[in-house]
Amino acid sequence: MAADDKNQNPNKKAQQNLLEHYHEAKLVRKIVMGITIAVLSLILLIGGGGYLYIKSALKPLNANSKITKKVNIPIGSSVTSIADKLVEDGIIKNAKVFKYYVKLKNEGGFMAGDYELSPSMDVAEIVSRLKTGKVLKQASFKVTFPEGQQLTEIAHVMAKAIHKSDNEVLTTLNDPAFIHSMMAKYPNLLTKDILNPSVKYPLEGYLYPATYSFYTPNPSVQEMVEVMLQKTQNVLGNYDEVRKKKNLTVHQLLTMSSLIEQEATAKADRKLIASVFYNRIDKGMPLQTDPTILYAQGKHKDKVLYSDLEVSSPYNTYQHTGLPPGPISNSGEISIDAALNPDKTDYYYFLAKPDGSIIFSKTLDEHNREKAKYISSK
User: Is residue 23 included in any domain, yes or no?
Assistant: First the structure.
């Protein structure tokens, strides 16, 4: 009997241990289940609350309001600045929700001007008005700055529009105090790169080519410049992610895009031109692009002569490798896109034919053969 009791005690103890583990496991499962339910409930609560919050923010700020307010949307305004302005003027509830709505619906093309808006309008109606340009008054005048213009040409167009001399406008555009004031307003666009002593004109390439409407008959040079800088900042903002991935500064991007803009013709594939420039840079070859020679000389000529290639200038891409110190003109979005998304080729040369089409070559021998065919040696 004693022997049997000794054999049974360990078994009984083991059963008790198993029973304790079972109860502990059951308790743990209950705790885990409780936590899981609590977490899921919290997620649903937050999600539901977020949905209701967004839904509320899309509705009118005050559906019963009889008030209308004059809201000015400046030319070149970003979605962020418009959203902030609408909140500031008491038209919408939440700037972030407005921005998310615009992005989700892929809205855009908002028009500048003075609008009559009311807190009784929902976000969809406000967006519709901003797109169709239902403004209080018509523009006083419009000015067009084409792609490929240099700062001196832009200054001439500005001067004509606001009845000043070319020299007056150009003096303002190059005034150090004015440049620094613009840098303070647009720090992400205008960096210290534009202050490089080798840069001919600090704002060269930064004033976006477009048609602008102005609502006062005689705006200042600063007002016109700010509109153009804002437009450049808005356009480049669409490419920030790609630009940063390619490790390009804004200055480098605008410099490259200006070269592409100057070399391109109506029949040119800008992405192929970009591929040639990048291939040459990767090989340590000079870019040898004629528009930089003319920019260095401050001239406009139909043909660059061999004697012109001797001009002493940091912009002379026959004498110096890499990009020139800065842009040599403004550039449109097509050229900006090409500078960021060049084709992958093994071309190192290109040649514009008299009809405007461009021939691309892989070797110097090929290039010289094509040159002999189409370009006069005189």
Answer: no
